[in-house]
Structure formats: C-alpha cells, structure tokens
Amino acid sequence: MRFRRRLSVEEPLINLTPLIDVVFVVLIVFILVAPMINVDPISLAPKKQALSTTIDEKKQLVLRLHADGTLVIGKRVIAESKREAALKELLRSDKKALLLCDKRVTFGTYQAVKDALESAGFEELEIAVSPKK
Questions:
Q1: Number of structural domains in the chain
Q2: How many C-beta atoms lie closer than 10 Å to residue 29's C-beta?
C-alpha cells in the first residue's frame, strides 16, 4: 500500500496593517515637524543695489580669479601648483581675504581656490562677482 501525503501548500500571509500604520505615523510626524525646521537663509543684495564699498587693498587681501582659472594677487599671477604655499605666506599679513571672481568662472575652479584658502588657514572670505565684460 502506498501512502501519499498531501502537503498543503498555503501561501504565507503577511499582515501589512502594522507597516501601513507606521508609515502613516511617520508621515504625520513629518507634516507636523517640517514647518518648525528653521533653515538659515542666505541674504543676497538686490540686483539694483551695486557694491557700494570701495576695495581697499591696504586693509584687504584682494584675490582676482579670472575665467581661465588664473589667480592674481596684486600684480602677481599665482600658479595652481603654488597656490597653497603663496596663500600661507599671505596669511601672515593679517588681512581679510576678498575674492573677486569673474562671472564666467566655473564652480570647480572657485571651489579649488576656496579649498586652498581654507587649507592655508584663512577663516573668513568675502566673495564678489564681477560682471562679464
């Protein structure tokens, strides 16, 4: 005699109710908390307001970043390989740094100069954008 076993194959039941409850609670928390989050705004000058302050090269270290990526300090062109060393030397002058960027400068070039300034030890940097000529 042969005995055949019939295996009852039942699909496992997954109860999604707790998952849906958790998702709704998280959604409600986000809805309630989102308006309370304060994001620090960056205040920009209106287009009509021009840069009213004059550049005083005796009190400020003026760095000019041109569209082709050259960095000029005073009348001296700084090579990309020597930027950090030159900036460390200028840090001793104890002047605030003012970076004048050409409007056509790419963000990567600006970021490289900013990183060089930070690694040289500058803690503050003022940035101004000069319009296309």
A1: 1
A2: 10
Q: Which domain covers residue 96, as residue numbers?
A: 60-130
Kindly report the CATH number assigned to the domain that includes residue 92.
3.30.420.270
* Beta bridge pairs of residue 61: 97
pLDDT in tens, 19-68: 999 999 999 999 999 988 887 766 665 655 555 556 666 677 888 888 88
Question: What's the whole-model pTM score?
Answer: 0.55
- Give yes or no for a contact between 95 and 126, defined as CB atoms under 8 angstroms apart: no
Contact call for residues 104 and 130 (beta carbons, < 8 A)? no
- Closest CA relative to residue 122, chosen from 40, 57, 42, 61: 61
**104 Cβ contact list (under 8 Å, min separation 6):** 67, 132
* Residue 98: closest CA among 70, 119, 124, 121: 124
> 87 in a domain, yes or no?
yes
Q: How confident is the model at residue 123 (pLDDT cuts 50, 70, 90)?
A: confident
